Amino acid sequence: MRFFYTPINMKNKQHLILGLAITTIVLLMPSFASAQCGLALKDEVLKEIGQSTYLKDFRVKLENTPAQKKAGGKETFQILLNKGTHYRFNVKADSSLNDQVILKLYDFTKDYGSNYDQSDGTSYEFFDFFCAKTQVYFISISFAEGQLGCAAAILSYVQKYEQ
Length: 163
Fold this sequence. Notes:
Elements: H1 10-46, E1 53-62, H2 66-70, E2 75-81, E3 85-93, E4 101-106, E5 111-114, E6 116-117, E7 122-123, E8 126-130, E9 135-143, E10 149-160
Antiparallel strand pairs: 1-10, 2-9, 3-8, 3-10, 4-5, 4-9, 6-7
C-alpha cells in the first residue's frame, strides 16, 4: 500500500493557521462576552460576603432567547443545602442596569426566601437562610421589571447552628 504525501508550502500553512484562528475567535466570542459579564460581577459580589465562606456562584446573562422566554425571563439552578447550616445569598446586577435583581430560594412546595420584598419593591444585597432540612433547593434569578442583562449571586457558608 502506498501513501501519497503532498507538501504544503509555508504560505498555505500560514493561511490555514490564520483561518483556523479567526474561526475559533468568532465561534467563541459570544461565550467570552457572557463570561466577562458574569466574572466581573462575581468579583464584586465576592468583596461583599464578609467573614462568610464562599461555596458557589451563580452567574446569569438574561437575553431575549426563546429558551429564556419559555422560562419566564429567569434562570434556575439546583443546589443541595444541609440541615443545621446558616447560609447567605449575596446578589448583584450589572451596574449599567436600572432594574432590581431578584433571587428566590424555593423547593417544590414552598418559598424559603428572597432578596426582594414585593410589598414595597425593595431589593437587598443579601439574605440569610437557616436550613432546617437537607434537600435539593431551587434558586431562580430574574429582574423585577423583566429587563435583560447580567447578574451574579454567591452562596456562602456563615456557620452551623443548633436547632
